Amino acid sequence: MFNTKRRSLRLATVGAVGAAAVALATVPAFAKGELDITVTPRTVAVGQTVKVAASGSDDAAPYLLTCVEERINGKGAWRAIECGKLVATGYDAKVNTSVKAEQRGTLQFRAVLYGYQGAHDEHPVKERTTAVQTVTVR
After folding, report:
1. Which stretches of the chain are DSSP H helices?
2. What are the DSSP E strand ranges found in the chain?
3. Closest by alpha carbon to 51, among 113, 96, 112?
4. What pLDDT digit, counting tens, does each position of 67-122 carry?
5. How many angstroms separate the CA atoms of 134 and 6, rounded?
6. Band (9; pLDDT cuts 50, 70, 90)
7. How far apart are alpha carbons 135 and 77 in whole angstroms?
8. pLDDT over 80 (residue 4)
9. How many angstroms separate the CA atoms of 54 and 67, rounded?
10. What residues contact residue 77 under an 8 Å CB cut-off, 6+ apart?
11. Domains delineated in the chain
């Protein structure tokens, strides 16, 4: 009776270890990277300029491109206002731009990092997007 319990316990342990090994083997690998955006100042008068800078990196694609997108008063679609240069993975993809506040309300900005499979790839993949940064225009 003691041998049967020991054998059952041993089989259960081996089964649990085997299941854990299979589970760990099927976990996908995640790409490493980051994307940051800086917007200054946060409050401006109509006619003043807002400076936006973004940089990002990711090892999911051989080439990267960072773009800044804008939306006015939180309505409508995002539109790209400036993109940096296409760079090889291992380098920061950067973009700097200035936007003139033309009307009262809010300006919203976000950065988007696109991954390209080649220098002439016509179908980029959106790898990362930053949180929205808001500027109040008074």
Report:
1. 2-25
2. 33-40, 43-44, 49-58, 63-72, 79-83, 87-88, 93-100, 105-116, 125-129, 133-137
3. 96
4. 999 999 999 999 999 999 999 988 999 999 999 999 999 999 999 999 999 999 99
5. 65
6. low
7. 17
8. no
9. 8
10. 71
11. 33-137 (2.60.40.10)
Exposure of 132 by Cβ count < 10 A (0-12 exposed, 13-18 middle, 19+ buried)?
middle
Reference 102, options 84, 81, 131, 130; nearest CA is 81
> Strands of 49-58's sheet, edge to edge?
33-40, 49-58, 93-100
Would you state the pLDDT for residue 25?
A: 45
Q: Which two tokens stand for residue 27?
A: 């976990």
Asked whether residue 1 carries a pLDDT value surpassing 90, the answer given is no
Task: Give the residue from 131, 119, 126, 129 showing the smallest Cα distance to 60.
Answer: 126
CA dist., res. 46 & res. 39, Å (int): 16
